[in-house]
Amino acid sequence: MSGQVALVTGSSRGIGLAAALALAREGFAIAINGPAEDAELKAALETVQRVGARAVAAAFDVTDLASHDRKLGEIERALGPLTTLVNNAGVGVMQRGDPLEVSEDSYDRCLAVNAKAMFFLTQTFARRLLARDRDASLVYSVVNVTSSNAVAVAEPRSEYCVSKAAAAMASKAWAVRLGRENIAVYDVQPGLIATEMTAPVIAQYEERAQAGLTLIPRVGQAEEMGAIIATLASGKLPYTTGQAISADAGMLVPRY
């Protein structure tokens, strides 16, 4: 898809890197993001470039709201005008446990990264997009990666759940505002996905999936989430916006 340019936040590994690769294979130019210029970001950039995509590293902390416009400008000077924003950067809780013991630091960290940064980066992206003439042949979209915990409570990670619920509502709010501008907004809600973040607990989740927690009896893979994100960003679900995509193997389907 010549002319499509995407920023994927939190794309030095996991779902973000899988999304960047899937978009690259669709012909997107890609800005790979991580909080710092480090070996992990460099390796991710090289991985995306190996599939033939034009790509740059865009190192910045998404919670640094004052840097958003400047960083998007740098990306656009390197790759061309952005058409696509994938808000994937996220953090987990500082310590799992009883909601009665949640610290203010952990709560604030989850909200700052998972909800506030996503909201304001979308705002900056949208402002830049609406300030210029757009090519009607291109697809313009925002794809937010939240979580099944936007809907279902995980008691040991309550502050994370709160942050993802906020992000899910922000997705709807932006879908309402940007729909009349022909910019689609989606909310991808992954379930049990094998990533670096879930590595400490994924074995027990695999057992629970095989025992019936998910309708498809296995955990998901980052590459599957990447395929969903690329499908949405490529406009392959036309005449849609505002949808929450439950990428959870049917885990949250009501049953009795």
Automatic annotation (TrEMBL):
One of its GO terms (molecular function) is oxidoreductase activity. Keywords: Oxidoreductase. It comes from the Bacteria. Belongs to the short-chain dehydrogenases/reductases (SDR) family. It comes from Ruegeria sp. PrR005. Pfam families: adh_short (PF00106). SUPFAM superfamilies: NAD(P)-binding Rossmann-fold domains. This is 3-ketoacyl-ACP reductase.
